[in-house]
Design goal:
about 575 residues; alpha/beta; GMP Synthetase, Chain A, domain 3; about 25% helix; binds adenosine-5'-monophosphate-propyl ester
């Protein structure tokens, strides 16, 4: 390892605050139980995450502190204090109660990055119901799978996004209410009272609702939020997180992101994904911090302007975004002042050493990589702020986390040997089950080890290095896509007989989706058909989950039992050894 592969912390520019111990020291005697007292509990077993995120702070001078700075796509800026968030989430809790939504029932947010996300997410938790979020790029099939499987009772959305819901609502018998945060675009407002599901006018209800509410005394183990995420087989699975998760979200945000009370913090992730919940809502609010919520899309200059205008101190983003910024060049960076940035972080996909080196030039700071998953609820393997960064490594396990690299028998392998990345069960934000699929949940563990599905190695200094997925899950622009979901939509297209989908390495997006397709009789491949297939997948599944590349084949490689061999397609595509082909059909 050369000296350029290791970034030591510059003691002149980074003086760690007193609570940020040296990593080795922080590990000693660490116990999650000792953090419990930093949150507010109703009694030793009961706590509510929304109370801890918001209401707790309104008992102090923090009540008038800005909790959320919202910047809309058109540049409008609004600010919400902790007291505002308390009142708005209380009002929404009262609306839910009035409509008869009960503890444990599922309330989905299908929203862009707008402030209503906070009031509705937190209000749902306050009554003990389970909140879930849907990425606003989702199409009809993606919505139907998630809302149907969880038997969602309510969806909160905008009139524009509602159009996608309208075409599937008849297939969702449990969906009783759709709350529209704005009704401006609904031509016939009288429809608001008569249709099924019943349409609710958010603004009207919120205006009428009381701002006082007594938060339900949830058990720390009660489910708080549910997030559907993709595996390599089958439909997306519903990862269930308990109120207790906030303990780890709070503490990791404090220690890893090293937020100070006066900081402005920007997490670029959408609330539709776990990062947008754990570190876009719960972690930062639990710390009483100020969050920047930026509604607009990615654009290098706009992002730089946003960092500068809001004097962002702590920035949490993702490798694809960083690579896109790199592509826009260093010249443009020089136009902006980033002197207020104290730490920058990355999550979601492997962070290449070049991206860290570029970050050093552009922002005079290294990006700190952090590794975790929807299932883990919070950051687990990280480049702790006081630790030297090994370029290309995910870092070391956070105190209180035991991580290991295991062989097939569940035994730890030696240093630098590849194996399955596993985490010892029992961290506070560990998923508690998979929604209505306890069997599948149990299969994620080998004894006390949660098998993450990632392949990794650990070096002799204890740093973990990401190698790849053990399964067929695709990470495109940091977003997790299940090949089966894409294949299922592809075969619904009238021209397609069979389809197999793989993740193909891509310099910018980490991976892109490539589909191998056989056509039905009477159809021939042509550019118009390709475009039509892409459009079809975007509409049915999601705007980000369509195949950017397609190969039309006469037949797909299958096992003798008829299963399409994605692994073989991938090996052939990448020019890798084909491995065992003894089960191949012919
Ligand atoms: O493969 C790993 C990759 O993202 C997966 C988890 O995806 P998701 O549940 O969508 O959560 C992403 C945000 C928490 C992991 O199994 N991944 C996540 N972080 C990293 C990563 N791969 C490499 N390096 C990382 N830092």
């Amino acid at each position: 390892m050369t000296s350029t592969d290791l970034i030591q912390k510059d003691k002149k520019t980074f003086v760690p605050p007193a609570y940020l111990d040296d990593y080795e020291h922080a590990l000693k005697g660490f116990d999650w139980n000792s953090i419990h007292k930093e949150l507010e509990w109703f009694d030793k077993d009961h706590m509510n995450a929304a109370h801890n995120a918001v209401d707790r702070h309104t008992k102090t001078a923090n009540r008038n502190k800005v909790a959320v700075i919202y910047e809309s796509s058109s540049g409008k800026i609004e600010k919400y204090t902790y007291l505002d968030l308390k009142h708005q989430s209380n009002k929404f809790a009262n609306v839910l109660t009035k409509l008869g939504i009960k503890k444990g029932e599922r309330v989905f947010l299908f929203l862009p990055r707008i402030p209503e996300v906070y009031a509705t997410f937190l209000g749902t938790l306050k009554i003990g119901a389970i909140a879930s979020t849907l990425f606003s790029a989702f199409g009809e099939d993606a919505l139907l799978d998630r809302l149907g499987h969880s038997k969602a009772k309510m969806v909160v959305t905008t009139p524009d996004l509602f159009k996608r819901l309208a075409s599937i609502k008849d297939k969702l018998p449990d969906l009783t209410y759709v709350v529209l945060v704005s009704t401006d675009l609904i031509p016939q407002k009288e429809g608001l009272v008569s249709s099924v599901p019943i349409l609710i006018d958010y603004k009207k209800e919120m205006l009428e609702a009381s701002k006082n509410f007594t938060v339900v005394k949830t058990h720390a183990e009660d489910p708080a939020f549910l997030l559907y995420t993709s595996g390599s087989t089958g439909k997306p699975k519903g990862v269930v997180h308990a109120h207790m998760a906030i303990l780890q979200q709070y503490y990791t945000h404090k220690m890893i992101h090293d937020v100070h009370p006066e900081d402005v913090y920007w997490c670029t992730a959408d609330h539709g994904w776990v990062t947008g919940i754990s570190y876009g809502i719960l972690g930062p609010l639990a710390n009483g911090g100020t969050i920047l919520q930026y509604e607009g899309r990615f654009d290098p200059e706009i992002w730089y302007e946003t960092l500068e205008r809001h004097e962002v101190n702590i920035w949490y983003t993702a490798p694809t975004a960083i690579r896109m910024l790199m592509k826009a060049g260093l010249e443009v960076v020089k136009k902006y002042d980033f002197s207020h940035l104290r730490h920058i972080y990355s999550v979601g996909e492997p962070l290449n050493p070049e991206a860290i080196r570029w970050g050093m030039q552009a922002f005079k700071k290294p990006f700190h990589d952090t590794w975790w998953q929807t299932e883990t609820g919070s950051m687990l393997i990280v480049n702790y702020p006081t630790m030297p960064i090994k370029l290309g490594s995910m870092g070391k396990p956070f105190p209180g986390i035991t991580a290991a690299v295991l062989d097939h028998d569940g035994k730890e392998v030696s240093a630098d040997v590849e194996g399955d990345l596993a985490i010892k069960r029992g961290w506070p934000s560990m998923m508690r089950t998979l929604w209505h699929d306890e069997e599948r949940y149990k299969k994620l563990f080998k004894g006390d080890w949660y098998i993450t599905g990632d392949r990794a190695r650990k070096d002799s200094d204890g740093y973990f290095w990401y190698i790849g997925r053990a399964d067929d899950v695709i990470k495109t622009s940091g977003e997790r896509v299940g090949p089966f979901e894409v294949e299922s939509v592809l075969v619904e297209h009238p021209a397609i007989a069979e389809a197999a989908v793989i993740g193909k390495p891509d310099e910018l997006r980490g991976e892109i989706i490539k589909a191998f397709i056989t056509l039905r009789a009477g159809f021939t491949p042509n550019p118009d058909l390709e475009e039509d297939i892409k459009k079809f997948v975007k509409q049915h599944l999601a705007a980000h989950a369509y195949p950017r590349e397609m190969a039309f084949m006469d037949k797909l490689p299958k096992t003798r039992s008829g299963k399409i061999m994605r692994r073989l397609l991938k090996a052939r595509e990448l020019g890798l050894p084909e491995g065992d082909t003894s089960t191949l059909e012919d």
